[in-house]
Design a protein that fits this description.
Blueprint (H helix, E strand, L loop, with lengths): L2 H4 L7 E2 L4 H11 L3 E5 L5 E6 H12 L4 H7 L3 H8 L3 H4 L1 E2 L10 H11 L3 E6 L2 E7 H10 L10 H17 L7 E6 L2 E8 L2 H12 L6 E4 L2 E2 L8
Parallel strand pairs: 1-2, 8-9, 8-10
Antiparallel strand pairs: 2-3, 3-4, 5-6, 7-8
Helix pairs in contact: 7-8
Length: 228
Amino acid sequence: MQAADVMTTNVISVTADAEVREIASLLLEHGISAVPVIDADQRVLGIVSEGDLMRRVENDTEHKSWWLKLISGSSAGEYVKSHGRRAGEIMTPKPVTIGEDEPLHRIASLLEKHRIKRVPVVRDGRLVGIVSRSNLLRGFSVTAPDTGLDVTGDDREIRDAILKEVDENTGVLVDRINVIVAEGNVQLWGLVENQEEKLAVQVAAENTSGVKAVENNLGFVPRGMASF
């Protein structure tokens, strides 16, 4: 199983001039912990995470003495990240990226090595998806030795067809869900607003050609989260 089989394809992203308040609202609205920063050609410039935003909060609530600043090694770069108002100023630049054919075990190693929680997926240098730790776990659960399942080219076509149907015809936000397909067996993961949306995604999957079975693991968005 590779990145293309588990990645989130409808990636919430921002441009370098996006304001911090806008980024915080996006994270809350979509229930995510980071957003890639891209240019006009969809090339990844950096990533803004909850940690980057929290650094600003800490700066607003703490006033270090001159000697603490000295021993902590504060620099101009740290000042920009803690005081910046736009994505390009507070982002982590030049993030690790992977291709669509990257195997899951290598992605797991990358996350561990670089101590990151997610990695953008690129095609010809342009953003096409993102793989998080939860995406990986779901993929590993499908490819565990006792399942005997393997992902084929047909499975990827099925996955793309399900996501396309959900995106175009159900009104469900596809950036909140993930679809895993192995030998025609579908697993649905992520968050939806209500039971009707949960059922709509399941029906879309069941009606997709090539699907043998659907396991619906969709949960519900915590009350109040979508209102931010």
